[in-house]
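Expect chain and fold; thus:
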Amino acid sequence: MPRLRTTVTALAGAAAVFALTAAPAQAAPGDVTTTCANTATPAGYVDVNWGYSNSCGGQNFAPNIKQIKQLTGLPIGTVVQACGSTYYPTGWVQTSSYYSSSCVAFPNSGFNNNAWTLKRVS
Protein backbone atom coordinates (compact mmCIF):
# COMPACT_ATOMS: atom_id res chain seq x y z
CA MET A 1 0.00 0.00 0.00
CA PRO A 2 2.78 2.54 0.79
CA ARG A 3 4.38 1.77 -2.59
CA LEU A 4 1.06 2.43 -4.37
CA ARG A 5 0.59 5.69 -2.47
CA THR A 6 4.14 6.78 -3.39
CA THR A 7 3.56 5.92 -7.05
CA VAL A 8 0.24 7.76 -7.16
CA THR A 9 1.77 10.81 -5.46
CA ALA A 10 4.68 10.80 -7.90
CA LEU A 11 2.37 10.56 -10.90
CA ALA A 12 0.14 13.32 -9.56
CA GLY A 13 3.18 15.52 -9.00
CA ALA A 14 4.47 14.84 -12.50
CA ALA A 15 1.08 15.69 -13.98
CA ALA A 16 0.92 18.87 -11.94
CA VAL A 17 4.27 20.03 -13.29
CA PHE A 18 2.71 20.23 -16.73
CA ALA A 19 -0.56 21.71 -15.50
CA LEU A 20 0.68 24.43 -13.16
CA THR A 21 -0.75 27.78 -14.11
CA ALA A 22 -2.07 30.86 -12.43
CA ALA A 23 -5.82 31.10 -12.02
CA PRO A 24 -7.21 31.97 -15.45
CA ALA A 25 -8.78 35.38 -15.80
CA GLN A 26 -11.69 34.02 -17.85
CA ALA A 27 -12.21 30.55 -16.37
CA ALA A 28 -15.51 28.87 -17.15
CA PRO A 29 -17.78 27.81 -14.28
CA GLY A 30 -16.53 24.52 -12.85
CA ASP A 31 -13.02 24.80 -14.34
CA VAL A 32 -10.24 23.34 -12.18
CA THR A 33 -6.73 24.83 -12.23
CA THR A 34 -3.56 23.70 -10.47
CA THR A 35 -1.38 26.31 -8.80
CA CYS A 36 1.37 26.56 -6.20
CA ALA A 37 0.02 26.60 -2.65
CA ASN A 38 1.62 29.96 -1.84
CA THR A 39 -0.72 31.60 -4.38
CA ALA A 40 -3.89 32.96 -2.77
CA THR A 41 -7.10 31.27 -3.87
CA PRO A 42 -9.01 33.90 -5.90
CA ALA A 43 -12.51 35.06 -5.03
CA GLY A 44 -15.13 32.73 -6.51
CA TYR A 45 -12.84 29.68 -6.26
CA VAL A 46 -12.43 26.94 -3.65
CA ASP A 47 -9.57 24.53 -3.03
CA VAL A 48 -10.49 20.99 -4.11
CA ASN A 49 -7.22 19.05 -3.82
CA TRP A 50 -3.73 19.39 -2.29
CA GLY A 51 -0.51 17.68 -3.33
CA TYR A 52 3.22 18.00 -3.80
CA SER A 53 5.29 18.99 -6.84
CA ASN A 54 8.99 19.77 -7.22
CA SER A 55 8.02 22.64 -9.51
CA CYS A 56 6.69 24.66 -6.56
CA GLY A 57 9.82 24.30 -4.43
CA GLY A 58 10.23 22.69 -1.08
CA GLN A 59 12.14 19.60 -0.15
CA ASN A 60 10.13 18.03 2.66
CA PHE A 61 7.21 16.69 0.58
CA ALA A 62 4.75 18.92 2.44
CA PRO A 63 1.72 19.88 0.32
CA ASN A 64 2.78 22.74 -1.94
CA ILE A 65 0.32 22.62 -4.83
CA LYS A 66 -3.45 22.89 -4.87
CA GLN A 67 -6.22 22.49 -7.36
CA ILE A 68 -8.82 25.23 -7.30
CA LYS A 69 -12.30 25.16 -8.79
CA GLN A 70 -14.22 28.13 -10.22
CA LEU A 71 -17.66 28.29 -8.56
CA THR A 72 -18.83 31.61 -9.98
CA GLY A 73 -21.51 31.01 -12.58
CA LEU A 74 -22.51 27.50 -11.53
CA PRO A 75 -26.32 27.11 -11.38
CA ILE A 76 -28.37 27.18 -8.18
CA GLY A 77 -28.66 23.66 -6.78
CA THR A 78 -25.12 22.64 -7.81
CA VAL A 79 -23.31 20.51 -5.20
CA VAL A 80 -19.50 20.41 -5.00
CA GLN A 81 -16.88 18.87 -2.72
CA ALA A 82 -14.29 21.38 -1.47
CA CYS A 83 -11.39 21.51 0.95
CA GLY A 84 -11.91 23.49 4.13
CA SER A 85 -8.68 25.42 3.53
CA THR A 86 -10.52 28.38 1.97
CA TYR A 87 -13.84 30.09 2.60
CA TYR A 88 -16.64 29.36 0.18
CA PRO A 89 -18.26 32.23 -1.77
CA THR A 90 -21.47 34.02 -0.89
CA GLY A 91 -24.48 32.11 -2.19
CA TRP A 92 -23.06 28.73 -1.17
CA VAL A 93 -23.84 26.82 2.03
CA GLN A 94 -22.06 23.96 3.74
CA THR A 95 -24.29 20.88 3.93
CA SER A 96 -21.73 18.56 5.56
CA SER A 97 -18.12 18.30 6.64
CA TYR A 98 -15.82 15.28 6.59
CA TYR A 99 -12.19 14.15 6.40
CA SER A 100 -10.58 13.82 2.95
CA SER A 101 -7.00 12.68 2.36
CA SER A 102 -6.90 14.87 -0.76
CA CYS A 103 -7.53 17.97 1.37
CA VAL A 104 -4.55 17.60 3.72
CA ALA A 105 -3.00 21.05 3.37
CA PHE A 106 -0.62 20.85 6.33
CA PRO A 107 1.65 17.99 7.40
CA ASN A 108 0.59 16.14 10.55
CA SER A 109 -2.84 17.79 10.60
CA GLY A 110 -4.54 14.64 11.86
CA PHE A 111 -7.82 13.17 10.71
CA ASN A 112 -10.11 16.06 11.63
CA ASN A 113 -12.80 17.18 9.22
CA ASN A 114 -11.03 19.15 6.49
CA ALA A 115 -13.53 19.11 3.62
CA TRP A 116 -17.05 20.28 2.90
CA THR A 117 -19.99 19.43 0.72
CA LEU A 118 -21.24 22.77 -0.59
CA LYS A 119 -24.52 23.64 -2.30
CA ARG A 120 -25.32 26.77 -4.29
CA VAL A 121 -28.49 28.35 -2.89
CA SER A 122 -28.52 31.81 -4.50
Remarks:
- The longest helix spans residues 2-19.
- The chain has one domain: 2-120.
